[in-house]
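Schema walk-through. Below, the input block comes first and the output block second. Nothing else is stored per chain. Lengths vary across the set, and this one has 181 residues.
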Amino acid sequence: MEFNAWSKADEEVVAGHHPVLHVLGSSMNQQETVKVSMAGLMLVGSLIDAGAVAVKGKSAGIAPGLDRWKELVRQGGEALKSGDMLTQQRIGRLAFAKRPLSAGRWTVSVFILWELPEVHIPVSVGDERQAVATIDGVGDDIAKRGLQAVLKQRHASHSFGSTHGVDEFKFNPYGIVRLSG
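--- output ---
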């Protein structure tokens, strides 16, 4: 959850909008997730340059304001130019993954598109800002240092149990990392 990512001007333009353009993303395999996410982000930048007044990643339910989208596009472009895959992965998560989501006594991520397990933390850990910081930190750590190192350091567990079926959109084949409270 990106705080201050939506302005009053964004709210006003969305309230008065009329035409809507839907862009369906391509299917992707595990090796293409970062590449496809960066291509989607660059498309967002092109749409804004062409006059789009708002952009929403529908499957993730995320819709930052134009200034935030422009900053993500700028950061994504820099990461593409430098070939920094970890930064591309992180920017893709910030752009297209709503976090946190509430699931009973857990606050959860949506990391399936970035080759990471979901991260579940107890709701008792703190407010949404703390939950987002923890979720993003764990995701970054896994991407940088690997799953086993993060599990050990954070005294976390990893499982492949899921409330989603293998053939469902939100099923994550990388499993779930659960942090204790």
